[in-house]
Each structure stands twice: as C-alpha cells, then as structure tokens.
Amino acid sequence: MRWFAALLAAMLLAAPATAQNSIAPTPAAPDYAEVSLADPVKEKQALALMDNIRCVVCQGQPVSGSNADLAGDMRRIIRERIGAGETPEQVRAWLVSKYGAWVSFKPPLEPRTAPLWLVPLLALAIGLWLLMRRLKWDRLKGAKS
Amino acid sequence: MKRGLILWLPLALILMLFAVFWVGLHRQENHDIASQMVGKPLPLFTAPAALPGQPGAATADFRDGKPRLLNVFASWCVPCVAEVPVLMRLKAMGVEVVGIAVHDTAPALDQFLARNGNPYARIGSDDQSRIQLALGSSGVPETFVIDGQGRIVKQHIGVVGEGDVPELLAALGQKP
Fold first, then answer.
1. Into how many domains does chain B fold?
2. Is the pLDDT score of A35 beyond 50?
C-alpha cells in the first residue's frame, strides 16, 4: 500500500513537468484546443457550446468529449472566437454555415424538423383529451349508479 | 363497435413506433456531411508550404481563370494512398491539383509522396485544420472543384476513384 502511495505521489509530482514539456508551446500563445480561456465567463460559454456542437469525424459525440484531432481543432476555434468577443450563437451560426444544421445539437424549428417539436405537444393534447373523456365517462357512470 | 376500435389504438401506435425504429435501424444511412460552402467563394486562407521544395497554397492562386482541384489529404490517411494514381492521371490530363495537408509533417509527407507519387502542383500545410473547417470539410480525403473565379463548384467526399474522373472533369469544364 505504501509503495502505491509513493508511486501516486511521484506521478503527481512528475505530471506538471511533462505537461510543460509536451503540451504548452509558449506561454504567450496557449493552445485553446485544451487550455481554458482566462476569462471564466467566456470559458463557461465556450464549454457550454462545445457540449452542443457535434464532432464532424466522430459523429455521435460532441466536440467536448472527443479525442479526435479535428474535435480539438473545433474546440480551439470555438474558444478563439468566443475569446475574441463573439457570442456562442454567432459561433454556432458560423459552424452551421460550414456544415449545415447537422453540426449543432440544437435543431432549428423549420418545416423538416417541425414534427420533432410538434409531436410532444400533440401527444400531450391527445393524452389530455383522453383523460378528460374518461373522467366525464366515469362521472356519468357514477351518476347513473 | 367504436369503443372497441379505440381500445386497439394504443397497440396500433406502439406497433407503428416499432416499425419506424426498425426501418431507422436497418436503413443503410449515408453519413457523409456535405459542405455548405459549395457554390460559395473559396474562404480566404494562406497555407504555408508543407514541403521545402514546393510552394504553399492560398486563395489568391485560385482566381486566375483556371479551374483546379483542391485536395484535402494527409500522409497518415490510409485511404488517401488509393486516390494518388487517379490524381496522377488527372494531372497527366492537365488538371492542376492543389493539396492541403492536414496535421502533417514534412518528413512524413516527403515519404508519402516518394512512395505513392506526387500529383500536387502546390501543397499547403493545415496544422490546426483551420482551412479544413473553413471549407466545411469533415475528413480526409476530400476533393473540391474550384472554378477559375475561386468559387467552390463541387465537393467530392472520400477517395477519388477511376469512376469519379468524368464527373470531376465535367465540373472542371474539361473534356475527357
């Protein structure tokens, strides 16, 4: 058990050194594929958008959860654009202008996607209608007996 | 009679839902993501030379009236090897192919071209996929046909095979 703790401590101590050697290129230009924005508000916006943008090579995943090179490149562009003052929706629109609505996990309301939005409402309406009919029927039956 | 039918309705709906799932799961879907940039001007970029011996690529190169192919590739991309002979054939027919090498290094690229042949007039380096993202390209290899005014007229996703040559030549405005 003690050797394990020692190993863990050694790894924790070694990690920053290797990270500095391999990842951080120069302190002046952080690589935003993996490095957070300095502004916590913008970083939060960027992370929220990353969860909402589909990785174009690993199609089922958002760019936030993919190790693919291209996903990293998409994270970099998202952070850079938000860092430069664009709103998340502007960045989303830019990506949609390149890859189509497919790239966004937030489907727009348009004729092709209308069922997606309308079916739940329709189902709710049908459910309510059935329930009301049933209640009325039960009341009639109750009144009769 | 009417009430009896309504009782069967939920079952019918569930069966319909299952039918939709079944069809959705078994349909051979096309997962290619078409670029929305087709028909639009080539985005502005300047790509540094990927190899010391060959010029890099820039948007300005595409505006001299001569239609060209823009081939997004990489030396680490296995399917890219398969299209080199076809690109060589297109080159022999007088088609200028401009390469954009994604996430590549000069030594790896040098080796790739030495082994498979070099169909490229220019190769620009795209280290961070900036050009690829600007093009709306979602992988390698992809080939874009750019007209003489620098407009994207066609996107070909995946390996260029022998069978794709007539279509590419037509998009380039060239007779086979």
1. 1
2. yes
The Cα of A70 is separated from the nearest Cα of chain B by a number of Å equal to: 7
Hey, what are B166's tokens?
């007539």
Q: What is the pLDDT of residue A144?
A: 65
Q: Which of A56, A73, A98 sits opposite B128 (nearest CB)?
A: A73
Q: How far is A22 from chain B (nearest CA, A)?
A: 17
Query: A69-106 pLDDT, tens per residue?
Result: 999 999 999 999 999 999 999 999 999 999 998 899 98
Question: CATH homologous superfamily for A29-106?
Answer: Cytochrome C biogenesis protein (1.10.8.640)
Cβ contact B136–A102 (<8 Å): no
pLDDT score of B175 more than 90? no
Q: Do B36 and A59 touch (CB under 8 A)?
A: no
Q: Does B139 touch chain A (CB under 8 A)?
A: yes
The single-letter code of the amino acid at A54 is R
- Please give the mean pLDDT across all residues of chain B: 93
Quote the domain boundaries for residue B159. Answer: 46-172
**C-alpha span between B15 and B11 (Å, rounded):** 6
